[in-house]
Each structure stands twice: as C-alpha cells, then as structure tokens.
Write a structure and sequence with these properties.
- The complex is a heterodimer of chains A (about 280) and B (about 200).
- With about 280 residues, chain A is α/β, with parallel strands linked by helices.
- Chain A has one domain (about 25-275): Rossmann fold.
- Chain A has helices at about 5-10, 20-35, 50-65, 80-85, 135-150, 170-175, 195-210, 240-250, 260-275, and strands at about 35-45, 70-75, 105, 110-115, 155-165, 185-190, 215-220, 235-240.
- Chain A has an eight-stranded mixed beta sheet, sandwiched between helices.
- The longest helix of chain A has 18 residues, at about 135-150.
- The relative contact order of chain A is 0.18.
- Chain B has about 200 residues and is an alpha+beta fold.
- Helices cover about 35% and strands about 15% of the residues of chain B.
- Chain B is built from seven helices and seven strands, in the order E-E-E-E-E-H-H-H-H-E-H-H-E-H.
- In chain B, the strands form three sheets. Chain B has a three-stranded antiparallel beta sheet. A two-stranded antiparallel ribbon of chain B has the order 1-2. Chain B has a two-stranded parallel ribbon with strand order 6-7.
- In chain B, helix 3 crosses helix 7 (about 185-195).
- Chain B is elongated, with a radius of gyration of 19 Å.
- The chains are: A alpha/beta (about 280), B alpha+beta (about 200).
- At the A-B interface, helix 1, helix 2 and helix 5 of A face strand 2, helix 1, helix 2 and strand 6 of B.
C-alpha cells in the first residue's frame, strides 16, 4: 500500500460535496459588496468601555457632515451599542431576500448591527450545544460577520467604519480581515489610564502582526485623570463632555456647532488626510 | 474534508447526508472503485461546526438568503406567558429565582406537529434528497430565490433550532418544486401535513 503522501500527489481533488465552491461563493459575495467601498476603517482598542463606539458613531457623523457617504458596521456582536447611540434601537431586522437595506441614521449614516436582530435587553443566544461552544462559536461568529459584510446593501460608500469588539488579540480582527484584506487600517481608541494604554499597545502590536495599517490614536476621556498618556501627535484628544454622553444616551446627535462635535470634525479631517 | 480509499487509492465521493439522531449528522462517502461506503457520524459540537460554515453539503439550489446563517443560528427566546413577548427582567428588578414553566415554542400545536413529523422521519432521512444535488429540478422562480411571508417566518421560528435550517431548506425546496416564489401560511400548512 502506498503512503498517503504518494497517493495524494497522484490523485486530483474533487469538490464533490461542493463545500469549497460555496465557501468561495461566500467570499465572492463579500468581495463584490465591498468593492463599492473606498475605505474600510476599523475602530479598535484592547479594552472595553474605552470609547470605541463613541468615537466610531461620532466620527461617522462627522465624516457624513462633510458630504461623504459613510456606513457603520457594529461588529460588537455581543455588546452592540451603535444602534442606541444613533437613535436606531427600534430597528428590527427580519431579512427576507438576498440582501438587507442598512438602517439609516443621522446625516444619512448607513448602519448595520447585531442589535437589529435582538429585542431590548436580549443577549445573543446561539442555538447550539453551549458546553461545546469552544468548538463552534468562533466559526459561527466569523460567519455572522461575513453576513454583515456581504448581505447588507451598503451601496457606494466613501468610508465604512467597523466598530470592533473589545480584545487585543481576540479572534475577531483576523475573522474580519480574512474578508477585507485590503482594509485601509485601524484607528485605536484609548483613555489616559495606564492600564488601558498598556492593553491598547498590545492591540496595536497585534494589528501590526496582521499587517493592518495603524491610522492613528484617539484618546477618549482625555482629561479624566488630569494627565494624558497619549502622544501629542495622536489624531484627537477628546475630553469628557456631559453633552456628548447625553447625546449618546438619548440617541440624538450633538448640534454641528457644539465644541465636542467640532472635535470629531477635526478628527474626521485628519483621518481623511491620512487616508489620501 | 476528504477521505481516501486506501484500497483503490482514490478520493471517496460524498454521497448523502442523514440526521441519525438529534444534533447529529451522518455523512456518507463511497468509493467509485470498490463500492465501499462509510458514514461519518458527528457529535453535537461537530454538527454545529458544520452548520457554522453556512454551506449545504452537496450544493445549493439557490443562493443563500441574507443572514441565513445568523437567523438560523440565533436561539429564539421563549415567549413570556404574560404578554407573549420575549423580555428579560428590567435591570432594576430582582431576577425571579424560579420562573414559572411555560410552553416552549415546539410545544405549540403547529410547531410541535411540524417538528414532530420531521424528527419522526429522521430515520428514513427525508432531508437527504434535498441536501444532495437536486438532479431533477423542476420549474421554479427565475432567480431561484424564495421569499417568506411574515406569518410563515414566524412559524418557522417556532421549529426547534437544531432542525430549523434544514426545515427552511426543505420548505423552500417545496416552494420551488411548486413554482412559487413565496412561502406563506398555506405552504407551511402543506409542509406540516407532508412531514407529520
């Protein structure tokens, strides 16, 4: 009997169960959808609660105020907060066809979120053997992210912002990047906390490992501890502003002439400059 | 994944898929050279892993519908006995330590009969032909897509999660065979009668 290597060298692979073809079709669907998007920017951090979603939502609105066509993909499957921040928490998706229209947020933002599949306060509960979730959960979440990229009718966009879940070297960045290898890069959100900064540094290092371009750093709660730990050349420092916090809680955008909105306008301008 | 027949030194071919038990798939491969065949039986975790790929073994009759994987994999909350909707206790109220039992969706007459019929048929695998390549395709909507009415979609959500994706494929197959582009309540009734 020949050894397996010899046999495999001699015979041709056939995809008779058509699995490879379907996986290729899935990727093609994503590629075709994303071909209409000029820049895909990931909003990342290492820590939860640092302000990724705050920055993503407000950066999106600031970009849209300049006339750009902007989308936001809330990739935080288990803790989606973008719908609430943009006043879209009443959206309820029940897709029934080949694609689904994104929700339209302030300034015409095109938005997709796991939150649109969930009732208020309802967590994501996957239907599967939970005691074996280490076997399948990552694959399922990866498949869900693929559907958010490929099944949403994003249309032609200048920028798609992807609000990533917390985690420095979690499975989500590679899961996303396998579908968008030509992402423009990532904006990292940190706070002045040294603990947060140390975790964000790990996240930046991991992004480097993945070949993801680092577009810049945003320091949220910039004055919280009376000192900053971000370099002076960070894209934007955003001090705590009760009006900003309130606007996110109520889902009502800040007026364009509010000082906090102006900071995000500045961030948007710097980001677009970096992308050019 | 491929299997090699060491006797004939050739790849074995995918033959069909069955549901031999709850949360288990039986995937059969055969060798064209010596006609040997064997079935790989998956455990619950492996079954879920196959499901998480979002593919149909043997090929699809029509492109995947939007969020097919996500919608099929999300567990549906059990309806509250009080208001019929799925809600969590408000965060400022204590959790009930022993919530009163209430019927699961599968226990509602319609879903129960559909699920029961499907599970009873598992031994003879009514789904295998659907999941394999359909060589006798009949007239169907031009682009092969099937829409679901709200009522039909609600009834589908009552089918237990582990067989819901298969039920969906099966019912969409029925719609295509009938040349209709919409799964509605009457087709759901027909599916229930067929698989009871």
């Amino acid at each position: 009997m020949s050894d397996l290597r010899t046999i495999l060298d001699r015979i041709d692979f056939t995809d008779d169960a058509l699995v490879q073809k379907q996986l290729a079709d899935q990727h093609s669907r994503v590629r075709e959808r994303l071909a209409q998007i000029q820049n895909i920017v990931l909003g990342m951090s290492g820590k939860g609660g640092g302000g990724k979603s705050t920055v993503t939502a407000n950066l999106g609105m600031a970009l849209a105020r300049t006339g750009l066509k902007v989308g936001i993909l809330d990739a935080d499957l288990n803790g989606p907060s973008i719908p609430h921040m943009l006043g879209l928490q009443d959206q309820n998706w029940r897709p029934n066809g080949q694609q689904v229209e994104p929700a339209i947020g302030p300034s015409g933002l095109r938005v997709a979120s796991m939150g649109f599949f969930l009732d208020q306060d309802q967590p994501v509960r996957w239907d599967g053997p939970t005691h074996l979730s280490h076997v399948w959960l990552g694959m399922l979440e990866s498949g869900t992210l693929r559907e958010f990229l490929g099944d949403v009718h994003w249309g032609q966009l200048d920028v798609l912002l992807v609000d990533m879940p917390p985690g420095a070297a979690a499975d989500k960045p590679p899961a996303i990047l396998q579908f968008i290898p030509d992402a423009a890069g990532a904006v990292f959100v940190t706070t002045p906390s040294k603990v947060t900064v140390s975790v964000v540094r790990r996240s930046v290092a991991y992004a480097n490992d993945l070949g993801l371009r680092i577009l810049g750093l945003v320091e949220n709660f910039a004055d919280l501890f009376g000192e900053s730990n971000a370099a002076d050349d960070c894209l934007q420092k955003i001090p705590y502003d009760p009006d900003l916090a309130r606007s996110l809680d109520t889902g009502e955008p800040l007026p364009a002439n509010h000082p906090a909105a102006a900071m995000f306008d500045n961030l948007a301008a710097k980001l677009m400059e970096t992308l050019r | 994944m491929k299997f090699v027949c060491r006797t004939c030194e050739r790849f074995m071919n995918y033959q069909d898929i069955e549901l031999p038990a709850e949360q288990s798939l039986g995937i059969t491969f055969s060798c064209d050279g010596c006609n040997a065949s064997f079935s790989m039986v998956t455990n619950a975790g492996e079954t879920q892993m196959v499901k998480a790929l979002g593919v149909t073994l043997g090929g699809r009759e029509a492109p995947a519908s939007a969020f097919e994987l996500t919608q099929g994999a999300l567990k549906q909350d059990e309806p509250s006995a009080a208001n019929g909707s799925a809600t969590s206790p408000p965060v400022n109220q204590p959790m009930q330590s022993a919530p009163a039992p209430h019927p699961t969706p599968a226990q509602t007459p319609d879903a129960a009969s559909l699920a029961e019929g499907m599970q009873a048929s598992m031994g003879k695998c009514p789904f295998a032909n659907r999941m394999a390549v359909d060589t006798a395709r009949q007239e169907r909507p031009a682009d092969g897509t099937v829409q679901w009415s709200d009522g039909a979609l609600r009834r589908l959500q009552n089918v237990p999660g582990e067989i819901r994706p298969i039920a969906r494929q099966l019912i969409e197959g029925m719609a295509r065979d009938k040349g209709t582009a919409v799964v509605d309540d009457s087709l759901m009734d027909e599916a229930r009668d067929t698989f009871m």
